Amino acid sequence: MTDSVAASDDDHALAARLATETGEMLVDLTRSSVADRRWGGLEYEGDRRAHLQIVEALAAERPDDVVLSEEGSDDPRRQGAERVWIVDPLDGSSDYGYSANWSVHIALVMDGEPVAGAVAVPGWGTTWATDPAPEPVPHDVESGVTPRIVVSRSRSRYDGMRLSQGLGADVYAVGSAGVKAMSVVRGEMDAYVHGGGLYEWDSCAPVAVARAAGLVCCHLDGSALEFNKSDPWSPGLVIARPGLVDDIVAVMFDRQY
Ligand SMILES: [Mg+2]
Question: Which of 30, 105, 141, 246 is most exposed by smallest CB count within 10 Å?
């Protein structure tokens, strides 16, 4: 044991493996005969199976750690716990089975910070993790090039207007926080901006991976993110190339809630 707050190599690898394996199970489920295409059928079954697979694996491999899952009940032991896994077993569930825009989020939080994590986007055949880290993103948007910013579908009207009018950005709207964040990690977007609240399981693993790629992650007013809060709700989120953050904060700072 050391006093420093850090994940082990095994934690990075475990996050990546659980995200990938859960994503594979979810892809298989969409192809199986039990897939119920009525509203609420496949989506709920995916949520349920993915949650069970992740919590059972963490209970076996990290029995002393606590888990906060979108699909589980809140475990009071996580306040004061040294190691807490924050997971979204299926992010973007309304797209699950219908498009590539859904993901699996696994993150380990120590002392309020994500120290290891992975996001699987099975529809793109890729899992991104904290170690090995993704290719570093450029610091700035090339001069003379219009910034590309992805926003949440549910918030696209107002957030999109601000970013398009205030920054002259090209704005795209997509479901799944993990997919949006990974579109910035892989360089097809320059920033992901979410006005209003979201939950820690939406943002935690995407933030872990985005930071490993050199992106800046903060609230819409530029303040620092904190994870494993007693209330896992969290005001607005920016994940952006470092050179773009101040401009985004200047036009979005009052859109936190
Ligand atoms: Mg979910």
Answer: 246
